[in-house]
Specification:
alpha/beta; Rossmann fold; four-stranded parallel beta sheet; 13 helices; 10 strands
């Protein structure tokens, strides 16, 4: 059975990444009169788009890499990533002074590829799914003698991501609900563990794309399953199978999961920019889409402060402009 995180492991990760990862702001949009809820039920945005590297991934990448032996680090670091974890590992490797190789999908946005290369990473391309790039990464690591730092399915990676949960609790002790994106599951595993082990009464809601609802399917089956990939704009959430470790954490610590389509994600991107002047990538905006949808429901509306984790802001400028200016009524996207 997969190991579950302890609160001490998350706290140790927080100490390890201090001075490397930022404590990101928690922005209350109630002050902008944009949420529309009662005074006692504000929506807050946990702005990991303002994190080092533009996404939350530096937390887990640095925590795991710095936990390795010196020999393992010197051998060089390798990962398989849709973009943000690769960029975070490139930043980590640069700080540690070791070589790094990143296997990315052929569909990775140029902003993420260019960012990793600018930090000295060697970038390889393989397929479009997590399983394809994982297989290539394992083969390359074996051939080169490098150490793999997986993007989500490792206890030390999840511990690093869990530091977001600790920050939320410190920044907003009265929080009653937290929305977290789900890709492979590393982010929600860490955040949910940190929150539930500290304050079990807080509701943790996972959010994944309608077209790639792999965690929903896995929970229904009772074990991790692989689903067919469906194109969508949330490129950071297109893993076709959750990790074994992350699946166990979701089972143990997550209250429920909701799915959101591309149209609602674009609407959320527009809402975030209009109300808070924040640039979010689609994978980060999915939580706000879920919060907005549930706020409109009498049965699902939060009874107190709700937090939406905006996981990253690495989006192509042209794509972002198109999202902001498109007509939602006529929008045609693959996953809608």
């Amino acid at each position: 059975m997969a190991e579950l995180l302890s609160l001490d492991q998350v706290r140790e990760a927080a100490a390890r990444i201090r001075g490397v990862a930022r404590v990101t702001p928690l922005l209350e949009v109630r002050d902008l009169q944009a949420w529309g809820g009662p005074d006692d039920a504000p929506l807050l945005l946990k702005c990991e788009n303002l994190q080092v590297g533009g996404a939350f991934k530096i937390r887990g990448a640095f925590n795991m890499a710095s936990s390795l032996s010196e020999d393992a680090r010197r051998a060089g670091l390798l990962t398989y990533s849709s973009g943000n974890h690769g960029l975070a590992l490139a930043l980590t490797a640069r700080r540690l002074g070791v070589p790094v190789v990143i296997v990315m999908p052929t569909t990775t946005p140029a902003v993420k590829v260019d960012g990793a290369r600018s930090l000295g990473a060697e970038v390889l391309f393989e397929g479009t799914t997590t399983l394809e790039r994982k297989a290539r990464g394992e083969a390359e690591a074996a051939r080169r003698g490098m150490t793999i730092v997986p993007p989500f399915d490792h206890i030390n990676t999840a511990a690093g991501q869990g530091t977001i949960g600790l920050e939320i609790l410190e920044q907003r002790p009265d929080v009653t609900r937290v929305y977290v994106p789900i890709g492979g599951g590393g982010l929600i595993s860490g955040v949910a563990a940190a929150i539930k082990l500290s304050r079990p009464s807080i509701e943790v809601v996972g959010v994944e794309p309608t077209g790639t609802a792999r965690m929903t399917a896995s929970l229904r089956a009772g074990h991790p399953v692989t689903i067919p990939i469906t194109p969508g704009i949330a490129d950071g959430l297109l893993a076709v199978r959750p990790g074994d470790i992350t699946f166990r954490h979701v089972q143990a610590f997550v209250d429920r999961i909701v799915t959101i389509d591309d149209r609602a994600i674009v609407a959320a991107l527009q809402w975030i920019f209009r109300t808070a002047r924040i640039v979010s990538e689609p994978s980060g905006a999915i939580t706000v889409a879920a919060a907005l949808a549930e706020r409109a429901s009498a049965s699902l509306a939060p009874r107190g402060a709700a937090v939406a984790v905006i996981s990253g802001g690495n989006v192509e400028p042209l794509s972002f402009t198109e999202y902001l200016t498109c007509d939602l009524a006529t929008l045609r996207l693959a996953a809608t």
